[in-house]
């Protein structure tokens, strides 16, 4: 048996566009379709991660209606397998010239058998439960098709591969993983597609619409030529650089925008985001706003301008000096402005400029906080946290530097100026300010946060494993807890790991738990 998989970067609510792309992909795969079962991920019909939309009767009807429209490119000898959401449950749809079957994927069942094609259908969320079954409960003469609904993360890719290998070994039959393609709110689906046989396996990621053909007899996998795929043997840096560019571009386009802008501070975070945006969207679609305050250093301006020149992006420079001093005088007449309020006022004036530019030009604002700063609340609400999307918010500060150096290495030149990478990081909101005055060195800080979030170690265990002090660990843990309210109001952060500090991880605002 051969399986044809159309991987479609569908857009939630764009039903006509989605079905047209499906048709075009199936036409390109015409030479393979005669002997294949075509298996489509449900998101190829609905778009990636519809949430409230899934329960709307009209949305369900439109999704099912797409199947009927596909009949225009279908031939009598072909077979189709997919799923769609109907009345609170997944419905498995199987059709050929001789029959049409619609079977519910029951919530209390781990998998569903389709005897007519000797196929079993399940999802990646059920794999652990399936593997806990007794040997006698596992069907061994069926092809197992696993639809993946989990978005990309480093850990999930490794875990899914291990679970699928275990399943194949236990059932001794072909096991397939069928993924989706496209951005969700704060995540990305990377067309994760795999085939496991007893003597062969293949695994890849797809970052655009295309088709894949899998031969269940010899394990051969044919990816559509001329389309972007990622081999899992590629380095993590290479893989996640490509994924970030795809996710950023997809989010901007599906949001209805073509241009983005951001604040260019001359620091490493904004330099990286500007570079990623330029790589994803092209230099003509990226604008950098330089907004020096009385405490901005000369090198920050020169670094930002050098980066903009290297990227060939448009810039605008707007000094904060006059409005900052005027506002400070005005407010001090009513109450004494604290030093913290004084610093945040500068950040919020920048937020005002950035959002005014967004409203005036129809450009989408990117924000630039990294995971280390987001975890510690090192950002100003309604200031530098203004924006619609954050492509680097799941990268620790040390990883931001690593990705910058990787981009420079790949380019063979310093696109991101070397001075940006070697100078001490600073928010430059007061005289002589540096990040490490209030935070541990980033190498230690990142290790502490990782052990707190990912490993969930006790404070004493973290001290042993991170070569730090208990005072530093308690300080970081307290910052993580106290800054939860900021993360609730932050823009979507692209998820790259399981410990993502986005909507799926938000803690309790009123918690006093100090773990």
Automatic annotation (TrEMBL):
GO terms for biological process: NAD+ biosynthetic process. It comes from Entomospira entomophila. Belongs to the NAD synthetase family. It holds the Pfam family NAD_synthase. InterPro entries: Gln-dep_NAD_synthase, NAD/GMP_synthase, NAD_synthase, Rossmann-like_a/b/a_fold. This is Glutamine-dependent NAD(+) synthetase. Keywords: ATP-binding, Ligase, NAD, Nucleotide-binding. NCBIfam families: nadE. The keyword Ligase applies. SUPFAM superfamilies: Adenine nucleotide alpha hydrolases-like (SSF52402). It is an enzyme of class 6 (ligase). Pathway: Cofactor biosynthesis; NAD(+) biosynthesis; NAD(+) from deamido-NAD(+) (L-Gln route): step 1/1. One of its GO terms (cellular component) is cytoplasm. Its EC number is 6.3.5.1. Residues 247-489 form the NAD/GMP synthase domain. It catalyses: deamido-NAD(+) + L-glutamine + ATP + H2O = L-glutamate + AMP + diphosphate + NAD(+) + H(+).
């Amino acid at each position: 048996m051969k399986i044809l998989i159309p991987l479609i970067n569908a857009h939630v609510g764009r039903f006509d566009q989605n079905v047209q792309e499906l048709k075009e992909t199936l036409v390109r795969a015409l030479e393979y379709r005669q002997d294949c079962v075509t298996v489509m991920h449900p998101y190829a019909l609905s778009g990636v991660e519809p949430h409230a939309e899934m329960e709307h009767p009209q949305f369900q009807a439109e999704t099912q209606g797409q199947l009927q429209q596909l009949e225009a490119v279908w031939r009598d000898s072909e077979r189709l397998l997919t799923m769609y959401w109907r009345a609170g449950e997944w419905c498995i749809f199987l059709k050929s010239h001789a029959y049409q079957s619609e079977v519910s994927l029951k919530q209390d069942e781990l998998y569903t058998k389709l005897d007519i094609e000797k196929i079993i259908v399940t999802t990646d969320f059920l794999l652990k439960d399936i593997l806990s079954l007794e040997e006698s409960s596992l069907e061994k003469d069926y092809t197992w098709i696993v639809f993946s609904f989990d978005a990309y993360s480093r850990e999930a890719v490794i875990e899914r591969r291990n679970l699928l290998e275990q399943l194949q070994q236990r059932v001794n039959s072909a096991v397939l993983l069928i993924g989706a393609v496209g951005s969700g709110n704060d995540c990305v689906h990377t067309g994760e597609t795999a085939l496991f046989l007893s003597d062969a396996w293949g695994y890849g990621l797809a970052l655009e619409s295309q088709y894949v053909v899998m031969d269940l007899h010899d394990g051969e996998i044919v990816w559509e030529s001329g389309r972007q795929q990622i081999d899992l043997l590629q380095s993590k840096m290479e893989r996640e650089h490509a994924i970030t560019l795809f996710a950023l571009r997809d989010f901007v386009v599906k949001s209805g925008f073509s241009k983005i802008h951001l604040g260019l501070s001359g620091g490493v975070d904004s330099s990286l985001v500007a570079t990623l945006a330029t790589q994803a969207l092209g230099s003509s679609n990226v604008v950098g706003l330089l907004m020096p305050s009385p405490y901005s250093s000369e090198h920050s301006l020169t670094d930002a301008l050098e980066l903009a020149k290297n990227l060939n992006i448009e810039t605008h420079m707007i000094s904060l000096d006059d409005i900052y001093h005027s506002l400070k005088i005005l407010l001090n007449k009513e109450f004494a402005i604290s030093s913290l309020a004084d610093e945040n006022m500068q950040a919020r004036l920048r937020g005002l400029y950035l959002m005014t530019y967004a409203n005036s030009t129809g450009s989408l604002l990117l924000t630039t906080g990294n995971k280390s700063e987001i975890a510690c609340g090192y950002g100003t609400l309604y200031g530098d946290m203004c924006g619609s999307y954050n492509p680097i918010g799941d990268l620790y500060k040390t990883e931001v530097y690593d990705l910058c150096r990787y981009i420079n290495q790949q380019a063979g030149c310093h696109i991101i100026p070397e001075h940006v990478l070697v100078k001490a990081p600073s928010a430059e909101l007061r005289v002589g300010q540096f990040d490490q005055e209030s935070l541990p060195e980033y190498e230690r800080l990142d290790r502490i946060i990782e052990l707190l979030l990912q490993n969930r170690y006790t404070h004493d265990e973290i001290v042993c494993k991170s070569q730090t002090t208990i005072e530093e660990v308690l300080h970081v843990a307290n910052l993580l807890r106290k800054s939860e309210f900021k993360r609730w109001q932050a823009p979507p952060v692209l998820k790259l790991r399981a410990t993502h500090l986005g909507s799926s991880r938000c803690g309790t605002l009123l918690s006093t738990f100090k773990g």
